[in-house]
Every structure is written in C-alpha cells, then in structure tokens.
Design brief:
2 copies of one chain form a homodimer. Chain A is an alpha+beta fold. Chain A is built from 15 helices and 23 strands. Chain A has helices spanning about 1-10, 20-30, 45-65, 80, 85-90, 115-125, 170-190, 240-245, 270-275, 305-315, 330-340, 350-355, 380-405, 410-420, 435-445, and strands at about 30-35, 40-45, 70, 75, 95-100, 105-110, 135-145, 160-170, 200, 215-220, 225-235, 245-250, 255, 260-265, 295-300, 325, 345-350, 360-365, 370-375, 405, 425-430, 445-450, 470-475. In chain A, helix 1 (about 1-10) runs parallel beside helix 11 (about 330-340). Chain A is globular. The two termini of chain A are about 40 Å apart. At the A-B interface, strand 2, helix 3, strand 3, strand 4 and strand 5 of A face strand 2, helix 3, strand 3, strand 4 and strand 5 of B. Strand 5 of chain A pairs antiparallel with strand 5 (about 95-100) of chain B, so a sheet runs across the interface.
Chain lengths: ~475, ~475
Amino acid sequence: MAKDKKLVESITSMEEDFAQWYTDVVKKAELIDYSSVKGCMIIKPAGYAIWENIQKELDRRFKETGVQNVYMPLFIPEGLLNKEKDHVEGFAPEVAWVTHGGMNQLQERLCVRPTSETLFCDFYKNDVESYRDLPKVYNQWCSVVRWEKETRPFLRSREFLWQEGHTAHATAQEAQERTEQMLNVYADFCEEVLAIPVIRGQKTEKEKFAGAEATYTIEALMHDGKALQSGTSHNFGDGFAKAFGIQYTDNNNQLQYVHQTSWGLSTRIIGAIIMVHGDNSGLVLPPAIAPVQAVIIPIQQQKEGVLDKANELYEALKGAFRVKTDCTDKSPGWKFAEQEMRGIPVRIELGPKDIEKGQCVFVRRDTREKYQVALEDAPQKLDELLKSIQKDMFARAKAHRDAHISDAKTYNQFQYALENKPGFIRAMWCGDQACEDKIKEETTATSRCMPFEQETISDVCVCCGKPAKKLVFWGKAY
Amino acid sequence: MAKDKKLVESITSMEEDFAQWYTDVVKKAELIDYSSVKGCMIIKPAGYAIWENIQKELDRRFKETGVQNVYMPLFIPEGLLNKEKDHVEGFAPEVAWVTHGGMNQLQERLCVRPTSETLFCDFYKNDVESYRDLPKVYNQWCSVVRWEKETRPFLRSREFLWQEGHTAHATAQEAQERTEQMLNVYADFCEEVLAIPVIRGQKTEKEKFAGAEATYTIEALMHDGKALQSGTSHNFGDGFAKAFGIQYTDNNNQLQYVHQTSWGLSTRIIGAIIMVHGDNSGLVLPPAIAPVQAVIIPIQQQKEGVLDKANELYEALKGAFRVKTDCTDKSPGWKFAEQEMRGIPVRIELGPKDIEKGQCVFVRRDTREKYQVALEDAPQKLDELLKSIQKDMFARAKAHRDAHISDAKTYNQFQYALENKPGFIRAMWCGDQACEDKIKEETTATSRCMPFEQETISDVCVCCGKPAKKLVFWGKAY
C-alpha cells in the first residue's frame, strides 16, 4: 500500500500547478527521461510506442495521397543554408554547428539540420529536368536540432523527432492544393485519431515560416486554455526555386521555376495529447493511438483458476486489440494506479467472484465508469467501449475548446477575456503588424491563425479601430 | 529507342569493373544520389522503400523476442564518450564534433553519436535499481555518423541508418543468450527475407567491437568474392557496467553489476542485396523485400481495351501483392529495361493478342524465363512464381557462396586461393594476433569469423605452423 500511495501522491494536481502537473505526468507515465545532454530528452518505451502509432497512421495517410519517403543527410553545409535569405535569418541563430570531423577541422562548417528545405532544394535542382519529373512529393521521418534556450519535454527540446514533407510542382495552383491537402491530412488525423479538435487557418505574415509565401496551421487548445500549434503546411511559391535555380522544361520547351511546399508534424503533438486529455490521475490516451488499449488485471491471482481464466480472456482479445495482462506480483491497487497513470483506456478486472458469475469488469479510464461484462461478450463489448471512449474524448475536448472561445470586439473585452477566461479569443484585425506587435507586447497573446471559416464579428480592428480585414484567433501559446 | 539504349548501355558490366558496376546500379536503379555534403548520401524513394521493408520485417522479429523501441539523443557529451577506455579509443578518431550552439561556443564539445552504448549506459545507470527492473531490452532506429575518409554508397558513408539494440541483464548467461539470439534473428532474416546465405561466427580479439568481451557476426559473400560483414551482436559482459556504475539489487539484497549486449544492422545490408543478387542489367530484388513485386506493362496500350484489362488485372492482384501498372507514354522496351534495372521480380506483359487468348505473360527478372498465364489464374500463379524466385535466388546465392569457399592447409595454398579463387578461405589458426596481422599485411585478407560450426582441417596454424586452435573464415572484405 505504501507504493500505491507514492504513485498517486506524486502527481501535482493540474489546478494547483499545471506546468508541474505536466512534468509529473510525463515522468511518472514513463514517457521520457532527461538525458545528460541539456535540452535533449530520452523517449522511453511508453512514449516511443505512441510515436510509432502516430507514424504508422500518418504515414499510411501520406502514402494514400502519393507521398514517397526518402532520407536526406543530417548535415547542411553553411553555404547551402545561406542561400535563401529569409530562411537563414530564421534558423541560423538556433542551429548546432559541427566544426571538426575526427581530428581535423572542417573547411566549411556544417549545421545539424533544423529543417531540410535547403537540402531538398539542392537535390531537386539536379533531379528535376522536365515536366515529366514533376510533381515530386517526398517526405522524411527524422530528428532535427534547434538550439533552444528554454526546453520542456515534447513541447520544446533541442532535438525532436518529426516528419518533414517537401514537394515540387509545375504550377502555383498545384502547390497551393498540396499545401491545403496536407494541412487537412493533419487536421483529420488529429481529430479522428488523437481526438483533438483543431482550428484550421492561415498564419499572419509575422508568424509565418521563414522563407514561406504562406503558412497554414492547425491550432489546438490545451486544458489550461493555452494554444498549441500542432502541425504546419507551407507554400513557398517559387521563392526557393529562384534562390536555388530549380527549373524544369515545360511541354512547350520553356524553362519554368517549380513551386514548392513543405509540411511537418513532430513529437510535440504528444504534448498536446497529454494536455488535452490528461487528468489528475495521469495520462488518458485515445484508444486509436494507445499502445495498450486494455489491460487485464487478475484479482486474487494466486487463487486456482484465476490466471488461467485471465489468459483465456487475453487469448480471446489479442487478435483484435492491443491488450496485455498484468500478472506481476504487485497489488491490484498498485496495478490500477499504474493503468490510470499510463492512460490505458480500459482496465479489465477479473477475480474469483467474477469467474463464478462468468463475467469480468470493464473500467474505462476517461470516466471511471464500470461495466459488468459476460466473458463471452468481452470482445464485442470491448470494441464498442473503445469506440465510445474515442468518440466521447473528442466530444469532451471539443466542448472544452468551444467553451473557451471568447469573442472580443474591443481591446478592453480582449484584455478582460484573456485575464478571466483562458482560451482562444476571436477578434477582428486590420492586417497591420503593428497591432499584432502591440497585442503581443501588452498581453503576451499572439495571433494563432486566420481561420478558413471567416466571419465578421465587428467592422473594426480590435486593437487600433481601423477597418477590419480578417477574423483572427488569438491566444497565449506553448 | 535512343532512350532504351542509353539506359542499358550505361551500366558497366561486372566482369569489366565490379566497383563501377556497383556504382552504376546504385545510381541507375535510383537508390541513392550524392549530396553536397561529402560522404553523405541521399536515399531516394526506390532505396528508402527497401529500407522500410527491412525495418518492418526486422522490427516485427525483434518485438516477438520482447524488444521495446526507444529514442536516445543524437549527441554525446565528450566526457560521457570518454568513460569506457577501449570504446573511446575505437570511436573518438572518427566522430563529428559539435562545438557551437547558435552563436555560442559550448562549454563541452558534443559528438554526433557514432553508436550509442555510452548514452544507454548513462540511462541504465539511473533507470535500473532492482532485479525487478531487468532485463532491459531496448532498441532504436536512427542515423549515426562516422567520419570515414573513403566512402561508398551504402557500404561506407559518413552518415548511415541502422538500428542499435542495447540490453541489460541480471546474469552473464542471460546476456550471452541474448547476444546469440539476436545474431540468429539477423541470420534468419538475411536468409529467409533477403535470400542471402550467411556464415555465423565469432570475431577474433583483433576484430571485435571496441569495448566488447565478444563480438558475433554474420558474413556474406558478394558476387566478386569479397566478404561483407552484414550484422553484429556484442556481449559486453560487465565492462561497461563497471565503467558507468550500473548496479542493481538482487533478490538477496546484494548490489550486482548488470551484463550488457548490443547489436546492429544497417543500410549497408542494401549493398549486400545489390552485390549478391544483381546482374549486368541492374538490380535483382528478392520478392520478400522488393517494394514492387510485379509491374504490369501494357503493350500497344493505345488500343481499345488494353488499359481496361491491365487495370482489371491490377485490381485482381493489388490486395495480395505489391504491384503497380506502368501506363506512362514510354515505349514497352524502355519500360522493360527500367523494370530490369530496378530489379522488380516479375514483369507482366499484357497486349491485344494476349487479351484475345485470355492470358498475360509473366517474365521473371532473375532468369528471364517467360510463362503464359491465363488471366483468371494470375493471382495464384504470381504467388507461386514469387515463392519460386525467392527460393531459387537463395539457392543460387548459396551455390555461388559454397563454390567460393576454399580450404587452405598451408600458407602457399592460402595465397594461391586468394589470388586465383576469390571467396572465403577456411584455414586453421593458432589464436595468436601476430599471425592475423601478418596475413592481413601480406595478403590484405582479414579473419572474418571463427564459425560456430568448428572443424579441424589441419592440426597446425596456416600461418606459423604452431598447434591450431580454431578454424577461421578468412577473406578480403568490404
């Protein structure tokens, strides 16, 4: 019992200190550990298994749209990084530099990729000759490095895992379509698989990616009312093509520049899963992404027949579900707490009394509701329950998100909402960066996106009172 | 037709220049491209898809033995790399050093991981407390960097992709069993999936991994008679545990050191696939690993009904096979040459005359044999043919390998075999490193392994004539 208490007591409640709650969950659910390299994390089995499921599902969705996977070098020569002016300004201050190979100083420094636009451009420059070579729809799964000063597990670390798609197209229209298509792949994935509702929209000029013509984003709302940018898709137009000289011969034998896109989603999304769904007992994982969907916990397992029956149940479920049995010598209470901490969607209790009645007990992680289930119905009932949990988790997250969107027509309303009701603020904007800067400076809120679904909630900019051009979602963000 | 010729003429024949043949295949089959980072390659879609299939199959086999995937940082602080003396001596001369993060010089240099023993040890030191925490059977899929002077695609590059397993066990026996188990996973994978026969054995002291007590290897023979080390598995005993202080409390409450292993297989194996199976028309891929197992090539595709029928056949095959249709506007001859270059195991020709007869033509890549197949039998016949190809490719590779093993009882025989019959040489060895050094210096052959299946083919060492201790496979190697 001492161990049970320790496990449960060791999480700070989210109402008391949300940041500490997050750190506790990340550690106690054994998702990550800190390494001796400052700002770099160790992703442990329970964390990496979530990433593997994300990869599997996203990769399948990518390939359905014609994406091919490749692998580009880890290093970018300094001269290559410098080729596109806006891009290098955005990234050079935060890259790690390799200066020596073995015992020798390198003639040219190499940076560890913070993102690979320049490498893909350098490749496409040689690989694309004719319109027949287009489109190129390539992606890579890899790690990237950005020398951040402040780091937090999953949310901001010096090294993180992601995928980065890089495409080249014959026309501007095709590039724009691909940019939006991939944003929608991300959004659908977040909503259908991670049960995280997202706002789809465009970033302002100030917030767009270094070197992009337009950046699109999906924005999710965390439990504490802060926003998290969860995936981005960029249209580069022909800016990189001109900087790198990526041209093709069209079907009239004319030289044309290609139009490019890139799009990425990273391990940061695991932070969103934690902060959208988690509670004061730990992680709560949506069934579609949970590495273990149900854990069978035998009660009084030393009694004759209990482990046999647990194993029989395991065999009946393992073909259709990601299931495991915990028959270690820990107490049932400890196992329950551990299942809750790790966010396993369903716990299946099975003791001598249940066996007498030919039943087991399902306990869902999200609501803690209990169900007595006849053993022969277990596979069907588990299937139904997992689907309900997935649906309910999305509905709850959406209700929370929607309840934390405020409309502000005046700057006073904006400030009041920000202080009293953490969440997204919808407010009109004149399109001038000065207003964005002022809002950020005075409130620390940033423009999250100009949503695709535009409305006019006021005729004037919430900040300066000049005529409004766009509805913007604002918020404090991770 | 000009294009057909160009495609075919552009490969050097392997008899004329094996190294150039290899480079040509790697480029023309579009497996890789060179990057502007010297010694680092770009893995293109056709190459990366092979690696994805290798990953999928190996990862499945790992997980069946209880392996869990994790992710460790890309960087190793210099002080951490220096902790195990033999290990740092082996790797420090060939690592890339990061000295600056953003605009600032780092207080301690970081090397880009050449392998991650030190990171796993640093982690296990904190993560392992009691015998209940053991064993740890972790693996990661990642890229590593070794600052090689001479590089060749897949075979030796400054950055390469691999998996590295790192385990910690309570007893020496368990560590030894895991070391052998993983070597056998590699060997079975190579033989069953890649159709590459391998010799399983132990490395000599001279050739073992830096820091290991014992290194086990699988050695394959390439078409030119050179050996390729295709996967290794190391038993570290408690050497790293003592250097890093990785101790656990056993069930008698006594502190004990853990026993560790590591094992890796890399993109180098793609080089083996090329050099074991390829021919003068290009790549030949074993069906079990081929990203595309069969390509349907319509003949006179502009004639009515041809593309429809090709599509019908595609639909009938796509559920059970990795199949595609090439209905681009290239000529059939060009498509045939491309299928051969890319090593697609079966080409399915389908023209108006075939359709009249209700048939198609299967052409296998390895032997070029043709089969007329009734359209309704195509799925079953393709399944049979792919299985035959897989089996025949292994048998041919094994026959070639076995025909290139010579026994040498004297140093003269050794030298004669090496000059006249490229391949493995089986010869007895006294166990003294001086003989290994002499053989390497005088013949450039190295000891590949002491095979698990030992025999006594002579009583004396092939080099010095002293009493022999071990049968050794020798050879020139990549």
